[in-house]
Amino acid sequence: MSQPIRIGIAGLGTVGAGTVKLLREHAELLALRCGRPLQVVAASARDRKKDRGVDLAGIRLESDPLALATAPDIDVVVEVIGGSDGVARQVIETAIAGGKHVVTANKALLALHGSTIAAQAEAKGVILGFEAAVAGGIPIIKALREGLVGNRVKRLYGILNGTCNYILTTMRESGRDFADVLADAQKLGYAEADPSFDVDGIDAAHKLALLTAVAYGRPVDFAGVYVEGIRKVGALDIRFAEELDCRIKLLGLARETEHGIEQRVHPCLVPKTAPIASVDGVFNAVAVEGDFVGQTMFEGRGAGAGPTASAVVADLVAVARGHGLPAFVVPAARLASSPGSPIERHRGAYYLRLMVLDRPGVIADVTAALRDEQVSLESMLQHGRARGPDDTVPVVLTTHVTEEAAMRRALQRIAGLAMLREKPILIRIEDL
Ligand SMILES: NC(=O)c1ccc[n+]([C@@H]2O[C@H](COP(=O)([O-])OP(=O)(O)OC[C@H]3O[C@@H](n4cnc5c(N)ncnc54)[C@H](O)[C@@H]3O)[C@@H](O)[C@H]2O)c1
Ligand SMILES: N[C@@H](CCO)C(=O)O
Ligand code: NA
């Protein structure tokens, strides 16, 4: 058997400890599959005495993660510290500069600096693996880079944040409101103490930016992702969606349009019959439509020690086998600088919920605003009369396909109507 591939793990948290566990439990199996052992030589730990539930015997513990990036006895550094700048970036860039391969789960960092780091890795002839950074255990980066590489991707979309999917699923099943379910998710340890990266769509946008780069061979463009989170989705919207035979999901979507590549993350109404509509709880899923393959969908766990370690180890095996593919499908210098399409050019159908005073003429005013912007209505839902003391009733309108800019102009007028009691809720309807 050949020489072992020598690994240094920076960060022994959930993912780091999970990776050590997998590598230990499957040491023989992996050695056979790689033709050489995968050996963890060293790891960085801020607290050396902490019990992480894994056997660290024989692993050198460094207090400074940068020591791993410069250690002569390490071939590949696994960066699982996290954070979009600071020490994680330093560890990765130092390791690459020293000719070491890098495997990372850090989507926040790669979404901002991925193209630069990929270019550095290529210049040094080392591999940059980031399967764990997108949809955790689902091997979607490998699917796009290898299995689907013969296709032009017409469209891809996915449930890329397990916390949001758990919250939306629980809201639907229990009828409870967003804030209430979020508090539960935090107690259960699903959502972060500061949940904004999850619920405001930022984590999903990081992942979408990486998927788009791999699917379309263009530089990672996080700033080009239009982002909305799920805070505004109410229990009422979930009920109305059911009535429209839809589910509400936070999706990340990318597609080629006549104006360029569109990237968006926002809550969507999707038909109940679409396969992705029944991906519930903490599960993630990614659908890819290729011109030759047609529709494909990958489903699995996007987070947690086991699934994420599974992805990290897949990248380590690629390193051990010497499979050095360009990080974003094409060499960094040849990434196409195709334009991004702004959200105002988006074409789609819309769900609009208005809380209005129950008075004659209100709907006439609303539909006049839509008519003036050439937005065509598909349906309207209103049940009975307002009963509460505030005399307010929800009205839901759905539109035919229209341009976002027109919808926004109409919405601005509607938002100014005196009969409107709350900010209108606009959710895009996806044709999946
Ligand atoms: N947890 C998941 O399910 C999951 C899934 C996909 C991707 N990721 C990504 O993996 C990375 C790690 O996530 P995690 O959940 O394991 O986080 P974590 O907080 O459990 O672990 C991070 C570890 O890094 C250590 N650390 C922080 N600063 C350090 C420093 N300066 N020197 C040495 N160690 C330091 C912390 O002590 C901690 O042990 C993040 O980028 C995250 O986004 C996590
Ligand atoms: N916070 C992420 C997990 C790590 O990617 C999620 O909820 O899906
Ligand atoms: Na993955």
What is the number of helices? 14
Number of strands: 17
| Cα separation of the termini | 49 Å
Report the β-strand fraction as a percent range: 15-25%
Structural class by SSE content? alpha/beta
Helix proportion of residues, in percent?
A: 25-40%
Give the name of the CATH architecture of the largest domain.
Answer: 2-Layer Sandwich
Instruction: Describe the sheet with the most strands.
Output: 11 strands, mixed
Number of domains: 3
Q: Any low-confidence stretches, pLDDT <50, length ≥5?
A: none
- Average pLDDT value? 95
Radius of gyration: 24 Å
Domain ACT: 351-432
Keywords: Amino-acid biosynthesis, Methionine biosynthesis, NADP, Oxidoreductase, Threonine biosynthesis
Enzyme class: oxidoreductase
EC number: 1.1.1.3
Looking at this protein, list some descriptive labels.
432 residues; threonine biosynthesis; binds L-homoserine; 35% helix; elongated; binds nicotinamide-adenine-dinucleotide; six-stranded parallel β-sheet; alpha/beta; Rossmann fold; Dihydrodipicolinate Reductase, domain 2; Alpha-Beta Plaits; binds sodium ion
